[in-house]
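Anyone opening a protein record will find just a pair of labelled lines. With that in mind, the following record should read easily:
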Amino acid sequence: MKKIGILCAGDEELAPFLELIPFLETREKAMVKFHLGRFCGMELVAAYSGVCKVNAAIAAQVMIDTFQVTHLLNCGTAGAMDEQVKLFDTIISEQALYHDVAEDILTEFHPWLKENVFPAGKELLAAAKAYSLTVPEEPIRFGKMATGEQFITMEKREEINQRYAPLSVDMETASMAHVCYANRVPFLSVRTITDTPEAAGIETFEKNCRAASEISAKILLGILEQLAK
């Protein structure tokens, strides 16, 4: 049986799942609360890790070691990087990478990547693409996500775009993908855009976070419905 981990960075990103799914039990490990339930015949474990790469990595490893998840999905919000990406578009990761880690660190050392990206789990990505065909009106984009521990300014945006050409940027996705890659657990990230170059700033993120979180949660549950078929 599939056991699905849903990992968000913040409490506002997790909130839609707690409202939509009747979780039966909550356990705490490494100062993170993990909510246990079921959806479409699959066991679920959902949590928010706290912001930043290390917090996300801790929670992802606990999900794998303590709760034995077979698949892990990240859900939440992100900032737009590609100029074609608009507010409330949803980005689904085909690849995740760090924009603030030296490029040879992960190829020359653990986990010895062939190239400096973490690929999405094939089964999860296929389910996401199948779901996207059922909702052609939804602005869903598939591509590359970049992760780093900073709120991106215009100067940094240009540099990251030139080097990596991601659709979006956030502070956790690649670290979750990194943990999953090392543990051979399929991973996928679903993030809805809260801010763009035209609508920038932390205030814009805070204003749009709840609505974007609801969109990404709805899409992720749609993906799980496809995965359960």
